[in-house]
Amino acid sequence: MSDAPTPELNAGALAILHAALTDAAALGIARTTVGGATIIDCGVETPGSDAAGLLMARVALAGLGEVTHEPAESPRLFAKPCGETTSNDGDVWKRPVVSVSSSSPVAACLASQYAGWKVHVADFFAMASGPIRAAIGKEPLFDKIGYRETPTGVIGLLEAAALPSADVVASLAEAAGVAAEQVTLLVAPTASAAGTLQVVARSLETALHKLETLGFDLSLVVAGRGRCPLPPVADDDLTAIGRTNDAVLYGSHVVLEVIADEDLLDAVGAAMTSSASPDHGKTFASLFEAAGGDFYAIDPAIFAPAVVDLLNPQTGDCLRFGQLEVPLVRKSFGLDTGEA
Question: Which domains does the chain have, with CATH numbers?
């Protein structure tokens, strides 16, 4: 996909942010300057909000996707393109969900939204996501998908409990090839309304990243959409990381439109859901503890949606893989065992 046309990821995301800043107070966010860069605090020293999380998610997708927060009374799952659901795939989730969709999913999710760039300066650590990654362009992923760009201004997201220092800004500016004054960063901890929502807005991205790791030809993917339950905001980041991961691994439902025959869809589909991992059925918090707090020691097969539909829009062929695990999600969220 290296010859794919390159959308203006950073420019598109910056336009979304600038339009939203007129309502900064209503969003519970604040603008400040650090080391010359523009920092948008979405939940570190500000209250943030679900609306701020939607803004972060839309920026992360570079304007190439739609993100919505659906209240508890909304229908729980997509229309069923693959026919009837299995017994535990029905409309059983009665809490809010976050939906995402894109007709340019590879650019939106993998070239932009995916948290693929490590930021580690002194005692500050975060994963950077958003269009800034396409300007940095050093991840091997970009050799496969293309979409590198050389913008005059860059924008990215940091999932962190503290605002970045001037040294962090300088490091990112150097990596992206721009002046610090041309860097914009949105920051929120996982244990915040905005941080929680923007993480679970990554169900579609998780499915696409899984396809990429399986060696699938991503040029065959033409559109996608995903839904994921929104956890209650946790009191600390470790609990929040567990809840947001469990939301995706055990509660998300993704539909990918793929121009491929049924045999190819069947061959890849079984490996695309979290049920492909022998660790399926365990909460993320327990897996993280067993791995000694090392994300990279966890079986990578677990990082996948709960349910995936692979649909060929040209033939109507559609296959469903995986299953929802609503009781496990409820346990992770700290909810009672009554109605979902």
Answer: 1-49+105-188 (3.10.340.11), 66-102+202-340 (3.30.1030.10)
